[in-house]
Amino acid sequence: TRQKQPNHVHLGNQLKNRSANGTSSSRHPQCSTRLKVVRGFAELHGATQNVGGLEQDDKVERLADIVIEKCIDFYCIQETRLYGNFRRQIEPSCDKVSPCLFFHHGQETKIDQRSSGGVGILLSPSGQNAWKRAGCPDAQYGRLVEGIARIMGLELHFLDRCNKVLKYFVISAYHPDLDRGEEEHTDFLGALSNMYARAPPGIKIVSGENMSAKLGRNIQKERENPSASCPLSKITGPFGTHKDSDSRGESV
Description:
With 252 residues, the chain is α/β, with parallel strands linked by helices. It is built from four helices and eleven strands.
């Protein structure tokens, strides 16, 4: 018997070697996660990463190379430190490969020394086909949080092996750092909820987020004392360095 597919798939920000970690400070490249579609046996490849700035052109070109090398359909990117909303083609260094397409959301000006916002979604050629199949929709931009751009979404339509259209709303989100106040964090969660609500009816949400939180995990490791443990155990996976969630992870 096949289980019904969930309507919301979450890409954690610590996906390493296809495992999920509950914290969110890493800026190392994240391995793509496969979303197996039951009915048509199609596979979607998505990744998420805090890039720590894309001010240098060769850095975003390297991301395009990763997208091609790893056969990633969509790459959710956080902390670009770029400004403005734009769509741009990115040429990979590989020969005879079609360019990738980069959607970006950023505030227009720098707010303060800590305002390293900016989020993006990078599409491979296969991801661009899914975007065109959806009718080339504009990216959806979340409202600014304390003047910083942190949330965006994009609708993509993929085909399974039976040519059935599979509709997804891909979100890239950059949570406030731990040193930001709880009021700003709460404001961000409200803005993120609004973005979820903007997904078209019946569409599946795939969310790649840099969370700045401990989500915990649902399986005890050897020599650990059993615990009623993480209140999020029904939705977290078995991987991660933290067995329990923190208050920010629970609010997320």
